[in-house]
């Protein structure tokens, strides 16, 4: 089953949420890096994305989050090497924030964002738009920013600046 963050936020009970989390752990054990990335974020210190009408069923747990971030990265890299655009994008996110086990590296974030976009993962255009539209960025380029913004709007992809 491909568990999404939406499924986690819409769980009807704490028990259902726990079953979804166990499924994610099994998926990670089978090499699904995205599953581990979801787990890490669910346990992260700012897991507000996963709070809903159940309240905050998952207490932030930095050690668990760090554990899952570290376990996920090699699996995501392997998936990225196989051409998975979403995995490429998630690898880029690791570099964007300096998420363990990697150090913050804007150049690597850009490389992986480009790879993800070229692999057909349209949400990566958001990162590219953000970089090229930032006047303080060393890669500021209005023409490229407009290109990625048009793709985002034409495809109805939600974007964040």
Automatic annotation (TrEMBL):
Coiled-coil residues: 7-34
Keywords: Coiled coil
Name of the molecule in the record: Sel1 domain protein repeat-containing protein
Protein's organism: Pedosphaera parvula (strain Ellin514)
